[in-house]
Structures are given as C-alpha cells and as structure tokens.
Write a structure and sequence with these properties.
Length: about 475
Amino acid sequence: MGIPSETVSAEALETVDGVFRDQQAGGAAPSAVWGVFDRSGLVHTGAAGRLEGGAIPDADTAYRIASCTKSFAAATVLALRDEGLLGLDDPVTRFVPELAGVTLPSADSPVPTVRMLLTMSAGFPTDDPWADRQEAMSGEEFAALLRAGVSFDSVPGTRFAYSNLGYALVGQVVEAVTGRGFREVVRERFLGPLGLTGTAFEREHFEEHRVAAGARVIDGRWEYLPMTGPGVFSPIGGLFSTVTDLARWAGWLASAFDADGADEPGSPLSRASRRELQQPHRLIPPDMPHNVGHPAGYGFGLFVDHYAKFGPVVSHSGGYPGFSAHMRWSAARGVGVVAFENATFSRVPVTTTAAFDGLLGSLPEPKELAVWPEVRDAQRAVTALLRSWNDADAQRLFTPNVGLDMPFAQRRAALAAAIDKVGGLVDGETTDASSAAPSQLSWFVPGTVGRLRVHIQLTPELPPRVQSLRVEALAPAAAPALG
C-alpha cells in the first residue's frame, strides 16, 4: 500500500497547484499538466493553459515524455537478463557487431558493456542537442554511423556522462536478443500488462484532440512543431504518455520498496529487479548539471538523489523539441509528482522538483521508526541501565568490545558527568530521534534541565546484541560524546 491519500493535505496539494500555475502563467508553455501519486495511484491532478486546438488538457492528454522513456528501456533489459537471455556485463559487440571495429580511447580500454550503457558510463560524450533530432534514424543509417566510428570522452566504465547514443544501443541489444523491434517488445512486455493504454511510441495511437503538439517561441509567439516519427533512437525518448499512465508506471516502480509487498503473479518485472533499477550505480559528480544539490547517482534509466532527511529520491527528466517532462518520487514514502509541458526549453523539471520537495516536507513523520524488535528491547534495557547502572546487567546486555572500547569504570564516570549536566534524569517517556538503519536507534532520555541523546547499534548476529553505546548531554551545553 502507498501513503493513504488523506495524509497528503489539501494545503499541500494547493501549494503544488500554485507552483505549476505560477510557472505556466509566466509563459513557460502553452499548456501544462501534473499529478501527485502514491503507490496506489493518482491522488491529485491539475492542468493549465490550452492545447493548439483550444482544448483544455487533463490527466489523460498525451505529451511526449522524452528521456523518461529510458526507464522503460532499462526495465526491458533487466527483464531479458532475468530470463537468462543476456548478461549485464556482456560486451555490446556481442549484440551490435558494427561496434567491433570502433577504435577505443586507449590500448587497455574495455569494450563497453550492457551495464555501462545502462549507467551512462560507456565513455561516450554527452549528446542531447544532437540526439534529440535523431529519433527517426533508420537501422541501416545507424549501422552506417557505427561502422564509421564513434568518439569517446573517457575510458569506458570510468565516469558518468549522459549518453543518448548509449540508450540507442540499448535498443539494439533488445532487438538482437529478441529478434523483434524494440517498440514492439516494450509494448508487449510492459505497456500491455500494466494497462498503460495511454502510452505509445506512435502519434497515431491517439485521437487528435487527446495529444499535445510541441511548441517553441518565435518572435514572441508560439509556433507548433511537426512530430518526429519513431526509429532507431526511440529508446532514448520516443514515448508519448499521460499523467495517469506515467504516475501508474512510477508508482509501480516505487511499490517495489513496500515492506509488506510481494511479487504479483505475472508481473512483467520482479520487485528485486525494480529496486535494482532504482539504485545509484554510477556516481554523478557535484559539478555536473544533473546534480541538483544532493548526493546523486545514475541507476538503470533513472537518477537517484539522496535527501538527508527523506532518503533516496528517484527521478528522470525528459526534453525533446517542443516538450518537457519530469517524474520524481520518494523510494521510502512512495509519493511523487509527474508533470508535462509542451514547449522547447521549458524548465518543468525545476518546477516539479520544487513542488515535490514541498510536498515531501508536508508529509507527516512516520509514527514509529522502522527498527528491529530487538532494537526496541535493547532501547528499554539501555534506558533502564542509564537510570541505574549495574556492571553485571551491562555485561549481559553488551558485546565484549563495549567494555574493551571503554572500561565500565570510565564509562560510569562519564555517564555520571553527562547526567549531572542535565540536572539528573527524571521519570518520563523517551522520545525517538532517528535511525540510520533498522539495526540502529537514537533517542532522548529526559533530564531536569535538558536531556540525554542515546545511540545504540546492534550486531549482525542472531540474536543481535548491543555493540555500541553513545551518550551525549544536550543541555545546558553539549558534553563530549561517550565512545
């Protein structure tokens, strides 16, 4: 289950609407649509502006989602991997023989692998301006391009560089393994089984009034652009989709982190592989434009940022001539935002991130930190020990290293000094502070003029034991931590 919709407050949804409406009112695009979702589906949708023919868009209006398509391409590769049809560390030349004659950047460079393609680390240069215009390239033209040679920015497997060429090659890998067209494979493996009826590679799939035309500003007026047809570069960004469908896709990916979940019968991709898509497999350096201020990495067809308070946040942007798209969700909370605009150089990813950050910050804190039951038992035992220390009880509670790291006599003295700083301990409820992992916990013990912050870590044994204890006096002045 996702977060129940009632926990996303009306005020938070109004704020989300305001962020997007302000963006659209500023002339960012002729139209915009957005949606808030959790693992159970859409919670809220909004729209602004009008389509070329004057219709008002809604959650079932199709826009090009551009590079958000890469998550579908990566999921397809993992599905084929799970069936034993390829290995992620297979060299690309096994599937794309035209690359066999390519000159690598150094004598000791490895041949790019499927994994390198998926993680944007095959060594190719960043290529958005060029690649965004190549979608309709034929297979024959692509083969000729590869035979003529490709350039490298770095030794394959050594650094991140956003590469559409790499994902065009991903499509070729899929076709070589299946003997079928990439678009057909995605349609049959994911779009059909997941009920994504509003998602397709072909403009003709949609009724005229149900699809947005892309636009750009010329002499202060919107000029609507022709649609490019599908081709060998479709894996980089060829899909059209709706807020309804893309929210369903993102929510399905996010549901892989639901602690109470299980693989659905007939699921097109296992929960384990969906989680694998959403892991940061390749570091994105802080000085790169794809880094938005958090520690960041690229997974398989998805970006992963680490928010200090909320943990992993998964996303991808899409930009095509005339279109901009973004999808973003919290892996832990399963709540996210998707949004589209139909304009070249629209900054909908920035707007979506701002809306998402505000939404995430508005969610209620979990009622209880997700830690092991043994951690709760240890919390109670440690709290009792702090109130009345007994070496025999400590010996039973802690692993031997605790006494070796700081002899109990020294620990008793340091603990007494910390308790004195908070004016002595008083009766009262302890309060959770944080947990970096299910095996750890920090909490507060009340004192007369302050409180103690206590932190424990348990061992990987069964049953686990307390291997670390830290106690800190927080008032009136912070005391040194007890190791």
